C-alpha cells in the first residue's frame, strides 16, 4: 500500500496512520475496501493547523475492518490556497454526511460530491466555525470579581 500510493506510515502506540497525497485518496480507499477488507468508513474529520504555513489542513479518515478487527487512519494534508480533496461517496456512500460536515465546519471542498451544502449551520451562515482564524465573537463570563467591568461594557435596555 505504501509503495503503490506513495504513502508514508506513522505508527504510535500500535495505531497506524497513512499519510497520502490528495490525488491518491480515492484509489487508496477503493483498495482498502476491495483488497484489504476495510468494509467501513467510520469517520471523516479535519484539523486546522493555522497559523502554521503549509499544509494548513489535514483531512482525516478512519477505516475499520470488521472481518480482521483492524482500524486504520489516513491523513491527507491540504494547502490553505486549495483546500480540496476528491469525494469518497462512490466508494463509501456513508461518506456523504461526513464530508458535508467537514465542508460546513472547515470549508474543505470535496470534489465530485453529490450534495455539498450545509448540514449543521444555517444555510445563510457566513464562514466555517472550526477554522482557527474564524472570529469568536463571544461574551465574557460574568463572575463576582469582574462584575463591575462587564456591567460597564454590557449593553442595557433603555428605561
Automatic annotation (TrEMBL):
Ranges annotated as spanning the membrane: none
Subcellular location: Cell membrane
Enzyme Commission no: 7.1.1.-
GO molecular function, one term: NADH dehydrogenase (ubiquinone) activity
Keyword NAD applies: yes
Function: NDH-1 shuttles electrons from NADH, via FMN and iron-sulfur (Fe-S) centers, to quinones in the respiratory chain. The immediate electron acceptor for the enzyme in this species is believed to be ubiquinone. Couples the redox reaction to proton translocation (for every two electrons transferred, four hydrogen ions are translocated across the cytoplasmic membrane), and thus conserves the redox energy in a proton gradient.
Name by which UniProt lists this protein: NADH-quinone oxidoreductase subunit C
